[in-house]
Write a structure and sequence with these properties.
By secondary structure, this protein is of the alpha+beta class. The chain is built from seven helices and five strands, in the order E-E-H-E-H-H-E-E-H-H-H-H. It has helices at about 30-40, 50-55, 60-65, 95-105, 110-120, 130-135, 140-150, and strands at about 10, 15-20, 45, 75, 80-85. It has a three-stranded antiparallel β-sheet with strand order 3-5-4. The protein starts with 8 loop residues before the first strand and ends with a helix.
């Protein structure tokens, strides 16, 4: 038995809208506008050379973090350079609890932009009443991943 497709959800200027979900449809939002909204939501970004310098590793190692799914990127800033949300970075490397969380969200059908947005969006029902990233930092990895799995259904 096939499930009906989910309506696409996106964040724009502080509000969540659903494409194709009744009278509140917003069809004129471009991918660039969606990316700009996520860029603003996240706030602090680190460019790849800065990450390499921060950890004292070659740039190729930072690119390996990305290829291995330990970090997610988005093109940000005036030059649309590839960057990583600074909140994904730990003291000695990418935050270890994120890789599995990225996998669960991607398996649920989210792309990198949607994953970054979801992890930075406040959810008062989570432990700590903050973002999923805050809950992960507080040690609630299982709860965050359970909710990530629930998004797929």
């Amino acid at each position: 038995m096939c499930r009906p497709p989910r309506a696409a959800t996106f964040w724009q200027a502080g509000a969540v809208a659903h494409r194709g979900a009744g009278p509140d449809r917003i069809d004129d939002v471009s991918p660039q506008q969606e990316a700009a909204a996520v860029e603003q939501l996240v706030g602090q970004w680190s460019y790849l050379p800065d990450i390499a310098e921060r950890y004292g590793v070659p740039l190729s190692r930072v690119r390996r973090f990305i290829a291995d799914g330990e970090l997610l990127t988005l093109r940000v800033g005036p030059n649309r350079a590839v960057a990583v949300p600074t909140s994904f970075l730990g003291a000695t490397g990418p935050r270890p609890e994120l890789k599995g969380t990225f996998t669960v969200l991607a398996d649920g059908g989210m792309n990198e932009l949607e994953i970054i947005r979801w992890l930075h969006t406040v959810d008062p029902s989570l432990p700590g009443a903050g973002t999923p990233l805050d809950a992960l930092a507080l040690g609630h990895k299982t709860e965050v991943r359970r909710r990530a799995q629930a998004l797929a259904f």
